[in-house]
Amino acid sequence: QITAMAEQLASELEGLDWPEGTITMQRAWIGKSEGAEIAFEVAETGEELRAFTTRPDTLMGVTYVVVSPEHAVATAAAESGA
Q1: Pairwise CA distance, residues 22 & 71, whole Å
Q2: CB burial string 21-59: b at 16+ within 10 A, e below
Q3: Whole-angstrom distance between the N-terminal and C-terminal Cα of the chain?
Q4: Tens digit of pLDDT for each residue in 20-29?
Q5: Other CB atoms closer than 10 Å to residue 1's CB: what's the count?
Q6: Dihedral sign for Cα atoms in the order 78, 47, 70, 59
Q7: Residue 82 CB contacts under 8 Å (≥ 6 apart), including other chains
Q8: Pairing of strands 48-53, 36-41
C-alpha cells in the first residue's frame, strides 16, 4: 500500500503549477527508491529474511544483517535463546 501511495503522490506532482524547486523537494520527501528485494537465509532456522536495497551490486560483501528488536526474527531468536 505504501508503494502504491508513493507512486500516486509522485505521479500527481506532474500536473501541478508549482516552482520546480518545490516539486523537487516533494519528490525527495516522498522518497521513492529504485532497487531490488533480496532474500537472505537465516542460518539457524533456514527461514527467509527479505530486505530492500538500492545497491544490489554491493551484496557480495555482506557478512551480517541487522534487524530491529521488534522484527519477528529478533523476537524468535530472543524466545529461543539463540
Answers
A1: 36
A2: eeeeeeeeeeeeeeeeeeeeeeeeeeeeeeeeeeeeeee
A3: 34
A4: 999 899 988 8
A5: 5
A6: positive
A7: 44
A8: antiparallel
